[in-house]
């Protein structure tokens, strides 16, 4: 192993896409993020996975509540409600 490596001409590799997932940027309150990080650490899971599971459960509750199919508008409404409640 060399003492030093020259990465001055290095390029970042291609990001492998995850089927069925979309990368987004979202702003969360610090206390909400701390809660999920603490829960994830004690459960040995990823905090983003836990946030996704909670959002999925909220969507399922909202969709099952009135029997309507899930639409983009309904999903946005659920996200707003859940983020406001947190």
Structure, explained:
With 86 residues, the chain is mainly alpha-helical. Helix content is 56%, strand content 0%. It is built from 3 helices and no strands. The protein has helices spanning 30-43, 47-66, 72-85. Helix 1 packs across helix 2 and helix 2 packs across helix 3 (72-85). It is elongated and about 60 Å long.
Order of helices and strands: HHH
Mean of the pLDDT scores?
86
Supply the helix-strand structural class. mainly alpha
Helix content: 55-70%
Unreliable parts: none
Q: Describe the global form.
A: elongated
Radius of gyration: 19 Å
**N-to-C span:** 49 Å
Main sheet makeup: none
User: What is the number of helices?
Assistant: 3
Q: Tally of extended strands?
A: 0
Please indicate the percent range of residues in DSSP E strands (runs of 2 or more): under 5%
């Amino acid at each position: 192993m060399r003492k030093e490596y020259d990465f001055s001409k290095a390029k970042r590799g291609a990001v492998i896409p995850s089927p069925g997932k979309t990368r987004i940027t979202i702003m969360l309150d610090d206390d909400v993020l701390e809660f999920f990080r603490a829960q994830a650490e004690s459960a040995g899971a990823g905090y983003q996975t836990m946030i996704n599971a909670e959002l999925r459960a909220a969507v399922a509750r909202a969709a099952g509540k009135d029997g309507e199919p899930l639409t983009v508008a309904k999903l946005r409404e659920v996200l707003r409600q859940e983020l406001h409640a947190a």
